[in-house]
Amino acid sequence: MQDYRERAGLLVAAELAAFVEDAVLPPLGMDADTFWSGAAGIFARFAPENAALLATRADMQTAIDAWFDTRRGQPFDSAAHTAMLRDIGYLVPEPAPFAIDTAGVDDEIARRAGPQLVVPMLNARFLLNAANARWGSLYDALYGSDVIPGKQGAGYDPTRGALVIARAKAFLDDAVPLADGRWADLGRAAPVLRDPSQLVGHGADGRTVLLRHHGLHIEVRFDDTHPVGRDDPSGIADVVLEAALSTICDLEDSVAAVDAADKVAGYANWLGLMRGDLVERFAKGGRDVTRRLSGDRRYRTAEGKELVLPGRSLLLVRNVGLLMTTPAVLLPGGGEAPEGILDALVTALIGLHDLRGLGQHRNSRDGSIYIVKPKLHGPAEAAFTDRLFDAVEDLLDLPRHSIKVGVMDEERRTSANLAACIHAVRHRIMFINTGFLDRTGDEIHTAMRAGPVLRKGAMKDAAWIKAYEDRNVQIGLACGLAGRAQIGKGMWAMPDRMADMIGQKVAHPQSGATTAWVPSPTAATLHALHYHAVDVAARQAARGQEPVAPLADLLTPPLSAGRNWSDADVREELDNNVQGLLGYVVRWIDAGVGCSKVPDIHDVGLMEDRATLRISSQHIANWLLHGIVSRDEVAASLRRMAARVDEQNAGDPAYRPLARDSLALAAAEALIHGGVAAPGGYTEPALHRFRLAAKALAGQEPAEADRPVEALALG
């Protein structure tokens, strides 16, 4: 049973009250009564509006469903569909041309292009790895990945090492060419660059040369006492790249945070990052390891002046969206508080530790707190977020627009009204980005009753996807984001397939995006090569001249009209969806793991988060609704894929098989069969319900432990 403390009319979970009052407020010199009174006022003001915005979502979906129902069996009519969306307020008028005026944004976001990591806030080890991925050894990334062909042995392979060194020096030839000859032929002479302005300085040891290309730094480390440098003709021991310029520390899709204890664990890690004292100790390779945040890096310029560069990624925090409430705070009427409002209050409060210089390191040198806001539906919800952040700034006595916002372009209504969404937060916006999985999940849910959708693989070639990706960049540039805010692209989900990433992900900087998501520090180092290969500023200048991709293309749902799949095709698609869903759900429900490398049906490890469930469950729900698959076929696939997932997890001693009484299996069934009715097609309500039950069973709390699985599935 949750223990609460009364605070200004709110009932605050005891662990949250203690965390805020004992760990967060005292260093800030802030009075607890003042904070909780202000928080209560913010909940009183914004919780009703939050609920009203969710009601508007539901009303619009009801109207869209009814429109498709009345036209069942008719060809899709783009003009009539667009007119209907305007009539119900789903589409709003485009704002007059404008440019954002966001100020006080750090260079890593506003003016530089490079990789971005996304990391679950509940995993301190991952957080530290990501924050420290600002700099990465190119030698290590190449040697330890499949970019260099061949299998790795137990010890050092000189042949593989020679391929790594050759690849790295070829990169240097392209990015920072010498005035004469190649890096491989440098010998023991000091490097003289074709463009002397690329030489930034030297490390304190005098043996590290700091270079710059396309705004990203490169260290060439000379050390003939190092095992690699000793055998290198030039004495080069390593090439180190500035890699993950920024990292999103995630409280949303990559975590399983369902109660006050989970929320406090996440908030505590965010505090540790902002104060710089987050430490994680663990065993690795038979020895104890202590991991902490890296310090800054110090150099001497050619003029003899000290140069200090950040040793860590610029850290952003992703709050949750508008949908979920949290039992961590109960409102005066007894209902749970909107979780996104609590996130805004607490993560911004913690961010004050950085702005006031109370930590061991500085995160934002320009005085901003960076909050990423996911799953906003249209400009009214963006405007709500802007006003909410105003109120939080007032409570914390922050200058207006100190809290910056990243708007994730992952919902259909936001994509269709992107300029209006940006306009609503034009004084504080610091990024927009795209995400295929969530965006496709919302596409399927919005057009659920229009007809059966394409297979997932075919959707990537549908007209709406190209329009979505193009419009995100084109509208962002038209609204003045260049030089002021990030334009981002989505995740490379296969951390073991770096050769494929090197071949394909260059498309993201070529699109004019200043960042794109990667799943690991190694991937960040390798993806940094793409930002050396592509001049993103030049690409933005070129793309800024393009007309915006047609709205009609964006609004054309990916329907399968005229396609006749074989039984084998249908079974293959169904099994693929079910296997991916089960492989992720079992970790979420049973282990509370919100992001991990999950093997797909072909045993390829995919870095998955909750968006995977949304697209898979919505796809199956759509095919069920339109008779492409039956309930019996879904049940048979669940049995087949449960056995497959059990087999894939056989080496995990903590794994619980997906038997018929499995909460995880019941959660998967609830996600599928409740997919049509689920608000926005979101998976969180069902996942939270089953995860809470799993935690209660683990703690043997009778109120939940005695509750049958069938009752949970029914909600």
From TrEMBL:
Reactions accelerated catalytically: glyoxylate + acetyl-CoA + H2O = (S)-malate + CoA + H(+)
UniProt domain Malate synthase G alpha-beta insertion: residue ranges: 156-189
Any GO molecular function: malate synthase activity
Principal subcellular localisation of the protein: cytoplasm
Annotated binding of acetyl-CoA, by residue: V118, R125, F126, S254, R291, P519
InterPro entries in the record: Malate_synth_C_sf, Malate_synth_sf, Malate_synthase_TIM, Malate_synthG, MS_C, MS_N, MS_N_TIM-barrel_dom, MSG_insertion
Pfam families listed in its UniProt record: MS_C, MS_N, MS_TIM-barrel, MSG_insertion
Domain Malate synthase TIM barrel, first and last residues per copy: 315-543
Active site: R318 (proton acceptor), D609 (proton donor)
Keyword tags: Acyltransferase, Cytoplasm, Glyoxylate bypass, Magnesium, Metal-binding, Oxidation, Transferase, Tricarboxylic acid cycle
Subcellular location: Cytoplasm
Modified residue annotations for Cysteine sulfenic acid (-SOH): C595
Residue ranges of domain Malate synthase N-terminal in the record: 16-69
Positions with a binding annotation for Mg(2+): E410, D438
UniProt-annotated binding residues for glyoxylate: R318, E410, G435, F436, L437, D438
Pathway annotation: Carbohydrate metabolism; glyoxylate cycle; (S)-malate from isocitrate: step 2/2
Top-level taxon in the UniProt lineage: Bacteria
Domain Malate synthase C-terminal: 570-650
Protein family (similarity comment): Belongs to the malate synthase family. GlcB subfamily.
Function (record text): Involved in the glycolate utilization. Catalyzes the condensation and subsequent hydrolysis of acetyl-coenzyme A (acetyl-CoA) and glyoxylate to form malate and CoA.
Assembly: Monomer.
NCBIfam families for this protein: PRK02999.1
Full protein name: Malate synthase G
Organism per entry: Sphingomonas jejuensis
Gene (UniProt): glcB
